[in-house]
Every structure is written in C-alpha cells, then in structure tokens.
Amino acid sequence: METATASSLHQRLTGALGAEGVRCEPEDLAVYAFDAYSEASLPSAAVLPKDAREVSAVVRIARECGEPIVARGAGTGLCGGATPVAGGIVVSFARMNRILGIDVRNRRARVQPGLINLELSNAAQPSGLFFGPDPSSQKISTIGGNVATNAGGPHALSYGSMINHVLGLEFVDDAGEVVSVSSDEPGYDLSSVLVGSEGTLGIVTAVELRLLRLPRAIRVAVASFGDVEAASEAVSAIIGAGIVPTALEIMDKTITQAVEAHYHAGFPLDAGAVLLVEIAGEPEDVTASEAAIADIARAHGSTMWRSAADARERDALWASRKGAAGAIGRIAPNYYIQDACVPRTRLPQALHRIDEICAEHKLLVGNVFHAGDGNLHPLLIFDRRERRQVEAVIAAGTDILRACIELGGTISGEHGIGFEKRDSLPKVFSSDDLATMGRVRDVFDPVRLFNPDKIFPSGAICGEVRTPENAVAAGAWL
Amino acid sequence: MAVAAPSDPEAFRLGLRAPHAVAAPASVEALSKLLRASDANGESVVFFGGGTLQGIGNAPSRYDLAISLAKLSKVIAYEHRDLTIAVQSGMRVAALDAKLSAKGQFVPLDAPHASRSTVGGVLAAGWLGPRRATYGRPRDFVIGSAIVLADGTVAHAGGMVVKNSTGYDLSRLYVGSLGTLGALVRTNFKTLPLPPARRAAIASLPERTRRRAIDHVAALGYEPVAALVVRGFGGEIAGRDGLDGRLLLFYEGSPVTIDKATRELRSALGAAGVPETTILDREAAVTFTRLVDAYVSPLGDKGATYRSFGTPSDLGPRFELVAALAAQHSLELESIEDLRTGDLIARLSAPSPDEFTQAAVVFDDALHVQLPYAQVLVAPPSLRDRLSMWGNDPPALPQMRALKQRFDPNGTLAPGRFVGGI
Questions:
Q1: CB atoms < 10 A from the CB of A443, how many?
Q2: Residue A284 to residue B260, Cβ atoms within 8 A
Q3: Domain of B113?
Q4: Given an 8 Å threshold on Cβ–Cβ distance, is B418 in contact with A187?
Q5: B179 in the same domain as B96
Q6: Cβ contacts of B84 on chain A, cutoff 8 Å
Q7: Using the beta-carbon criterion (under 8 Å), do B161 and A409 form an inter-chain contact?
Q8: Is the Cβ–Cβ distance between B304 and B348 less than 8 Å?
Q9: How far apart are CA B110 and CA B121, in angstroms?
Q10: Residue B164 and residue B97 share a domain
C-alpha cells in the first residue's frame, strides 16, 4: 500500500474509532500478522472496535478503501483463518469481550465475540449452568473465533459443536449494516450458515448462546491399553454398544509421557495408549455406564481402569489433557497439528495409516484426539531448521488428509479450513458442491471483502496442493 | 413434460391452488432432469413428501407441477456402529424409526403423523418438536445432505462424520427452507442410542394450580424430556382437563432414574396442590405420538392452529395474551404450552365456518401486533391467502431474498410459499 493511501486509511479509521482503537505502526501490527498457523502477513491496520457501530464504520471504510477485513479472536486458529494473507484491516475483538447477559431461567446467554470461551462457563456455573463447547484452547480462545470455526472440543461427543449452541447472531454485513438473525424468527436458518464460515460472510458482533444444566454426577476415568489401535477399537465398541459418554479421548505413549512429565495428573507411564472417559448424568446412570464401559475396555485389552476420586483429580486429568500440545512443546523443537475426522469405526485404520505415512516420511508422530467423534489430531514432530523435515511434514499432512478422505472422512473436524487447507477442499467436495457454497458467498460478500483467500481454493490452482515453505501450524491447541 | 406417476393433482392442492400435473421421479437423476426442464420452461414446482406439514407456509403464488419425492425412499447407508445413517428424503419417518430402533437407535424428529410424513418433508418444514429441549433440534442431527437445485445441479454438503468444519454447512440451511432453495434428496443423520425406558405422567390441574405446578416442574431435579400444559384437545391428547387444564410430562432414561424422577414429581405436584398423577409406561410412546399429531390435526373450515416461539419465562404472558384475544373474538381456544422449549400451540375454532372466517382474519391481525412471529400451522384452504401464515417479516429478510434469488433466480421452486413471499 502506498504511504499516502495508508495514511488516509489510518486517518479515517482513527476518525471513526479514536486513536486508542487503531494500530498503524509496523511494530504494533506485527502481532496481527499471524495466528497459530505459521505464515505471516502484515495488515495495513488493526482496529479494536468497542461496539457494533464501530465495526460497521470499519466495514464501510474498508469497502471504500478496497481493503479486505479479517476478524480476529485470540489468534489460536491453526489453519491461518485469522492471518491477513491479503493484507487489509484486522478487526480484533479484544475490547468487545463482555457477557451481555445470562438468562438463567431460559438457559441462554448473550455475549460479545471477544469473550473468552471459559469465562462463560465460569460465569454461568453459580447458576447451575455451563456452556457446552470446550475447545482445548478455551482458556484463551474467544466465542467469536469458536463461531467462525464451528469449534468443538472434547465434550462435542455429547454436547455437539458450536453450531448446536448458537441461537442467534448479530453481524455486520458487507454494506456495514448491522443485521440480527435468531432461531425465534421465521425464515432461512442464517445462523447455521454463519457458524463455521470463518469470517467470510460478515463480522459477528454479538452471539446468543444456549446454556446447559450442569450434570448432577460426573465421573472421569482413565484406562490403559497396549497401543492406540487397541484403545480406538475399544472406543468403536463403546459407541457401537450404544453408549455415548460425554467424552472419549485417546493419548498415545508419546503424548502421555510428555503430559505426565509436565502435569503429574496420574496418567500411567507404561501404557501404549490411554483412554480418558467422562460420563455425566444422574448418579445411578453414571455408575452403571462406567461399569459397562470398563467391561468393554477390559474386553479390548485394557489392563488398568482408574476413576478420579474427586473433583480435584478430575480437573487435573482434564487440565493435562487440554494442555497436551503445550506439554509436547517441551520435548519437540516444532510440531504440526493436523485435524481430520473419520467415521468412528474407521479409527483403527486411520491410525494405522497415519503411522505408515509418518514412517514413510521419517517423522515422529504423537496422537492425542477426540476418539469418540472420530476426530484425529496427529501431531507431527519436526525441526523447523531442517528443510527436509519441513517438506516431509507438509507432504505427510496432505497424505494424512487424503487417507482420512479415503476412509470416508473429512479434512477438518473442528479447526476449519482457513488458508492452510483451502486447496484440499476439492478433494472433499465436487465443483458443483463448491459452486453452491459460492452462491452463498456471493450473497453475503460479492466483492470478497471478508477474509479473502480462505476456505475456498484459489481459482488458478484449484485442485492442486500448495506446499509453501514453512507453512505449517505452530500452534498449541487441539 | 415427463409425468412419472398418474396421480390426481387434487391430492396436491395447497390453499385454493392445485397443480396442473404431478410427477414422482424414481431417481435423483430423473429429478434433476425434470427440474432443469421445469426451470427452463418457466414452470413452478412444489415438492411433496407425505403432505403432513404442507399446512405450513403460504399457498404458492404459481403452481404448475407437484413433484412427489415418495419414490426416493431408500436407506443409502446405515453405519449403525458409527451411529450414522444416510437416507433418501422420501423415506417415511416411521420407516426410519423402525430401521433405527431395530439397532436400538433413534433420531428425535418428533414428527407428527410419522407413518405418512417423510424425512425430507419434516426437515424442509423445519419441524420442531417438544423433545428438542433435551436432545436438540432435528437440524442438530443432520451431518450431511444432497440437494437438487432449480437448475438441476446436485450439490452435497457435510459428510458422514459427526464433527465437521469443512466448507459451509449448507445442510442446515436447507432444513426449514420449505423446498424454496432446492429438493433435499439425501440426509445424513447422526443417531442416538434409544433410552432404555420411557414414561408419561399425566395430571389434571385443579383451579388455580397451574402457576404453582409450572414453577414446581421447572425446579425438578430429574428433568423430563418434555413437559407440557394442555387445555382442550380432548380425545386427541391423553388425560382429562381440570379447571386449569392438564399436565403431561415425558421421561426417558434408565428405569431406576425414571422411578426416582416419578417419586420426585409426585411429591412436587402434591406440594403444588395437584392431587393425582397417572403414570403410563407401555402407552408412553403412543401418548407422545398422539400429542405431536395434535399439533397439526386438521380442523376443516372451522379452525386454525398457530405456533408461537419464545422462552419458557414468557410463555405464561403469551398464553394470557392469546386467551384474551380469543375471548375478544369469540373464538374457542385449545392450547399446548411447552414448558421446556417455550412453544405455545394455540388452536382456535368457532361453531361454524362462517363465524370462524369472520373472526379469524381480525384475530390474525391483532395477534401479530402482539406476537409478530406467530406462525400458522394449519388453516382452512380458503383462509390461507388471508392470514399472515409466517407472521411479520424477520429483520434479515433482505439477505433471505438475496439467497433465494441466487439459488433459484427464475423463481421456479415453491414461489411465494416462504417467509416474506419468497
């Protein structure tokens, strides 16, 4: 961008938001250049609006100046969804981070997009309520970012992803108008399209969410297995027996050892894989389900079953599971987290293929994943300074996605497509499927103002797989 | 034009309009071809499943061809160990239920008249039943879809995995779009394990017990999957009205939990001044079925049924408002108040068709002043063009119109049927 134009953009933004709401200096903009994906690109400006009116002003200015707009939550996204790859204006919601209201009787909450996920459950808890989606990043990721990626988390098994919890949205459209959509109103279910659209259809400025009643009993247990295949066979058998606990998570030996060294939560160090099970509901049902699940685990070779004795132990197990990627960071120079989803009975095959692929590419892999949902997160360990390893990680990542598609799965369960996977989208969807999604894009954002170059394949290389140097996720959330 | 089945167009009448022809394509390819031709020839098309929810929405403004999807009724894939199933849209809901229950599973569609209604029809109509407070909306169980657009394009969204953030989630956009964006031909569901036991509890509410009973039900520790206060619907919905109507609760879960829940309920209702609670176990399922059937039971020319969405806490005031309006317009009111979802079903009737017609049009205007989004579920055909079937226009109507324009630029699909005349 030419300096004269840049200064006019900055002036206009400052006029609308005040100096405290605008960042223009390169050193200030550096933090907005990337998210947890490694590719970085400096925006022309970053803004921190206080309300929907200011977001609206930003959209109008961006449109008039021909600058794209990229909405940003906490920047924990692993696929470059918040990376301003085409430059433009990054909209940070750091100043729109409040709970606007909790309606206990009707189990609803209205929040601003910058609210940190965990703060909602913390605020609702004294009223006996909680918010279902709990991505592992929930201590820092925002509701707006969760909406954008249709985030899930370990408890999606029972409670579903964001799409199942959004009752309505307020968003700023491409003309800068503030629009509200609600499930209480008749018409097309526009919330369902906006959730998971990764900031490509508009800028969400408020979210109406469903809250759930806290279960009266929660049991968390750990089972050890010889290897991840055996653990995932057990998961398939549990689901196949018609038992759907609230969470079924698997960690392999590499991850378990790293986690245990860091958190000391009591995971067995000698296990080839551990299965973390959470069951919630009425006390009698929880006890019966635990017995049934433990039986299935034993029948699939589990050598140890241990229940958390109290809430403290339970919280420690969860804290270490959710901090798994952070822990692996201590033993690996760099790692790359993939996100794919397969039908749950295909888990053993998927894991076998991941092992083969990583062996072919001479890469170390750790597996920590939402087994109950078939949502895989292989974590490829590498050294960024070794060019061969970087290339191997990118190639292996693509092979893993292809393998998961071949098994009837898809290329993102909860992280989204972002910039990273957009050229893999044609492996999942036909050109007619993509063109139909494009019709929706045309309606909301015909000039591609919002988060351009995300989700959809770049026209010129549609169908090809990009292999940019160093372009791998460096994040810590899964 | 290819007409696959010689059906009587009269059977596909909507409001005062009947189509010129009826077709029942036997394959997605045939449907695609048929739509492409209709779109090119300027013929307007309305899709039909079982017709059980066609009372919803405006009558079409143009209506050349009714396309029955009844022949597209196959199970495409049932991965019962994955708890997923893919079916064609013309499959009867009862057939889906039977297929799933054989493996101890279900999808909580809560569809009225399940033996006639189709999966695609129930989804297209955006049907919402009482158990959604516990299990979620039907759309929450939709994990993938295939749709045939007006120009014949077959487009897929989602997949056969239970967690998916890959591209736009258009499957859920099609749910509730009443066939105005395309014909849903395939739906992938995630399923749930069937609860081991079901129980219905029914209690007549003596005078001045309603408010206390509702408060006590809201405070129950063991939560029912559905809780409703019914007035009227005698002979259709189980139980007998007290002066304050009757309470119907449904429990699903393990026998031991249901027993504990029942003890808690009896004690709570006793404290609210409700003397007797009838328990139904073997008849629990059929009691629930008859309840949801009643939401859309036809009344001939003497009545209409409205649905108002809202929250549990504003349910009472909405009921009082509708009751006052009904009295003011000399209409008899029967109602279902859903204590968990906040839905209010209000069925209004008069002794004769003439009396009803006169009162209904004025009532409809007055109602929408107070409850802008009250929706008509069932109305006499002659009134369909005179009542505000969807209520007032929602704020996002311009976006909805633009979507319709982009998906169906020639206005081929169910023109005028949807919100705001879309």
A1: 22
A2: yes
A3: 75-193
A4: yes
A5: yes
A6: 343
A7: yes
A8: yes
A9: 13
A10: yes
Q: Is the CB of B170 less than 8 angstroms away from the CB of A436?
A: yes
Q: DSSP string of B393-405?
A: PPTTHHHHHHHHH
Q: Do B163 and A413 touch (CB under 8 A)?
A: yes
Question: Is there a contact between A212 and A125 (Cβ–Cβ < 8 Å)?
Answer: no
CB contact under 8 A, A413 and B418: no
Least CB–CB distance from A187: residue in B175, B312, B400: B400
Mutation site, A411, A436, A441, interface B, largest B CB count within 10 A: A436
pTM of the model as a whole: 0.95
Domain assignment present for residue B316? The answer is yes
For chain B, the domain total comes to 4
Task: Give the separation between CA B90 and CA A398, rounded to whole angstroms.
Answer: 38
pLDDT mean over B348-359: 97
Task: Please report the DSSP string for A252-313 in residue order.
Answer: EHHHHHHHHHHH-----TT-SEEEEEEEEESHHHHHHHHHHHHHHHHHTT--EEEE--SHHH
Mean pLDDT over the full length of chain B: 96
Give the span between the Cα atoms of A188 and A183, in whole angstroms.
Answer: 9
What interface predicted TM-score (ipTM) does this complex get?
0.96
**Which SS3 state, helix, strand or coil, does residue A207 take?**
strand
A282/B222 CB distance under 8 A: yes
For residue A262, CA distances in Å to A258, A278, A325, A329, A366 come to 6, 22, 11, 10, 16
How distant is the Cα of B227 from the closest Cα of chain A, in angstroms?
Answer: 14
Amino acid sitting at position A332: A
**Rounded mean pLDDT of B76-103?**
97
For residue B363, give the CATH number of its domain. 3.30.70.600
Cα-based distances in Å from B65 to A462, B11, B144, B277: 39, 12, 28, 51
Say if residue B92 is in the same domain as residue B41: no
Give the minimum alpha-carbon distance from B338 to chain A in angstroms, rounded to a whole number. 13
Neighbours of A269 (CB within 10 A): 12
Per-residue pLDDT reduced to its tens digit, A284-323: 999 999 999 999 999 999 999 999 999 999 999 999 998 8
Residue listed under structure tokens 């007619």: A432
- Considering only CB atoms, which chain A residues are within 8 Å of B147? 436
**Cβ atoms within 10 Å of A25's Cβ, excluding its own:** 9
What digits encode the pLDDT tens for the residues A364-399? Answer: 999 999 999 999 999 999 988 999 999 999 999 999
Residues, chain B, total? 422
Contact call for A242 and B162, based on CB within 8 A = no
**Residues of chain A with C-beta less than 8 angstroms from the C-beta of B375:** 186
Closest partner residue to A440 (CB to CB) among B166, B170, B194 is: B170
Longest dimension (CA), chain B: 67
Q: Please provide the size of chain A in residues.
A: 478
Q: What are the two backbone dihedrals, phi and then psi, of residue B257, each rounded to the nearest 5 degrees?
A: -70, -40
Which member of B149, B160, B373 has the closest CB to residue A184? B373
Edge-first strand order for the sheet with B246-253 is B278-280, B197-204, B246-253, B226-231, B332-338, B344-349, B303-308, B375-378
- Per-residue model confidence as pLDDT tens digits over B287-334: 999 999 999 998 889 999 999 999 999 999 999 999 999 999 999 999
Nearest chain A Cα distance for residue B252, angstroms: 12
In terms of domains, do B209 and B274 share one? yes
C-alpha pair distances (Å), A74 with each of A83, A113, A440, B292: 12, 10, 27, 45
Domain shared by B214 and B304, yes or no: no
The answer to whether the CB atoms of B105 and A409 lie below 8 A apart is: no
Beta carbons of B161 and A408 less than 8 Å apart: yes
**Residues of chain A contacting B194 with CB distance shorter than 8 Å:** 242
List of E strands, B219-374: 226-231, 246-253, 278-280, 303-308, 332-338, 344-349
Res B201 pLDDT > 60: yes
